[in-house]
From TrEMBL:
The lineage of its organism: Bacteria, Pseudomonadati, Pseudomonadota, Gammaproteobacteria, Enterobacterales. One of its GO terms (biological process) is regulation of DNA-templated transcription. It comes from Serratia inhibens. It comes from the Bacteria. Gene3D superfamilies: 3.40.50.880. Keywords: Glutamine amidotransferase. Transmembrane segments: none annotated. It holds the Pfam family DJ-1_PfpI. This is Glutamine amidotransferase. Residues 7-165 form the DJ-1/PfpI domain.
Length: 190
């Protein structure tokens, strides 16, 4: 069974990873798990209280296929959880690594974005980190996948879901139909 772990922190942006986790679990039968610092309950920016199954410190990379870093204000706070070694090791082990919104900052800090195409909320968001991959930044409003790494601005949970599933090899008719349903919302004239 494919296993996905999503890293959550206090004030995480709940809409950013809800679609990928729901799709993975509900449509594709993934084992979806959530981790937080010390396994503590965390509250989303929308007030959703989540009690994760495990602590970040207990993540065993040999058991997972996908590591997602959800965005949220913690990644720009004075003391974000330091998961850079975990993210770098996941990438070295060829695990799909994904970051959305400020979760992309963690990928940049870990060195994962140094030599591959990526995006974020803005180029400035990542350039504050003085990371080595600035030349590979893509200024686009949708997710970007390269070398089993998926990045997205916080406004792109649908393409984030699609690119992650594609990176995992799930690019079937079910996914195309699901994407069509989501795209239909944007066809309504304003």
């Amino acid at each position: 069974m494919t296993c996905a772990i999503t890293v959550l922190t206090d004030n995480f942006s709940d809409w950013e990873t809800a679609l990928i986790n729901s799709t993975c679990r509900g449509y594709y039968g993934f084992d979806t798990r959530f981790a937080s610092p010390k396994g503590a309950s965390v509250m989303s920016s929308g007030g959703l209280l989540v009690t994760p199954q495990l602590s970040i410190e207990a993540i065993e990379l040999d058991d997972i296929d996908l590591l997602i870093v959800c965005g949220g204000t913690a990644w720009q706070s004075g003391q974000p959880p330091d998961i850079t070694a975990l993210v770098a090791e996941a990438h070295r082990k060829n695990i799909v690594v994904a970051g959305i919104c400020d979760g992309t900052r963690v990928l940049a800090q870990s060195g994962v974005l140094d030599n591959l195409r990526h995006t974020s909320n803005s180029a400035e968001n990542l350039s504050q980190l003085d990371y080595a991959g600035a030349a590979y930044y893509q200024d686009v409003p949708y997710a970007v996948a390269d070398q089993r790494v998926v990045t997205a601005p916080g406004t792109a949970p649908v393409s984030f879901m699609a690119e992650i599933l594609g990176a995992l090899g799930f690019n079937d008719e079910n996914l195309k139909a699901y994407l069509s349903m989501h795209a239909a919302e944007h066809s309504k004239p304003l």
